[in-house]
């Protein structure tokens, strides 16, 4: 799946780029999706229903549900159930779904509700319908149709099933997991393993790629290093719910910014990265930035960081990120002045400005992630695609991991390879694990909406 990158001041104002192309490759067990790159978010175009209604959705590794905007969304300008409010959005930009005109849509009479960290909400109903992306068609796909949301587009979540709202926002007796998009591709025999590779490409590029079921060896440099996905809630869950890994260090031009290992969520739906305040402050100091009252942020001359870089270490995998990836421009000040695209947070999230520098393979069957530096040279166009059946070709485990295993976090934040059985789901809900903000609503940390709307890139 190649994807388009959309640029704009927000999800609602970003402009379309090239259209998506997703098709089954000649190599068995592979699907490629092309996404449009406009720098605010990553867009995939799909069609839903017996009459192939077209719409755009955000592609997000930080959530797990596919939901689209219903034609009766009361927030839409000119919507069927029009509200008396100034918060309306233009839903015609990315399209809506009229389930009443699709003969293949089947409602299961279950309520869909989700809340994101920027307080953007979506609610509606769950059902099944045919979903097509390019020449690929998947029938009886679980899909939520939102008839009340203040977003102008839906979401294609491709994360772990433990983040599905049917599991996290339901009562204990009703909680369940279902086959989301990548799981459905596997069960239908389209791919052989629930695995996909993410290549966001450079910021200046117009597209990137998600390869379901395989690895493209031309898209990375040297060798992939495999690290376990961490189970942050071993007292409540048997398996991880977030795509979260341990990292050892962060440095800028050789100056260490992080003095102890920590964990981070890898989230393609987050435009920027969120790091501990100590790391952000150390980065500001190391980069020689100063506080500007007129913009309310630390900034410096953009040219000061040419050919400079950050280094992120993951158990033997060293990912070099150009400093320019973490620079942002502000409205109302000269474009030669740049701010830092990092925000302080107790929960570390490596968003697009980190992920653009890496080639990341998400193995959701074995709860592992493999990383390497992305290849942006001419050789990246010479596809070397291999379908994955078991282990990832040309990948080795990190020095301290040794074997494939799901890791858990200790209080120090370091990964360990122990495993604990889950307790009752009600205990998880009451604990706040999984960022459950309200009894029936899931808050997704580092969501696609949170970063896209809080910061304009």
TrEMBL record:
Residues 400-424 are annotated as: Disordered. Disulfide bonds join 76-91. Its main location: secreted. GO terms for cellular component: extracellular region. It holds the Pfam family Asp. It comes from the Eukaryota. It is found in: Secreted. GO terms for molecular function: aspartic-type endopeptidase activity. This is candidapepsin. It comes from Babjeviella inositovora NRRL Y-12698. InterPro entries: Aspartic_peptidase_A1 (IPR001461), Aspartic_peptidase_AS (IPR001969), PEPTIDASE_A1 (IPR033121), Peptidase_aspartic_dom_sf (IPR021109), SAP-like (IPR033876).
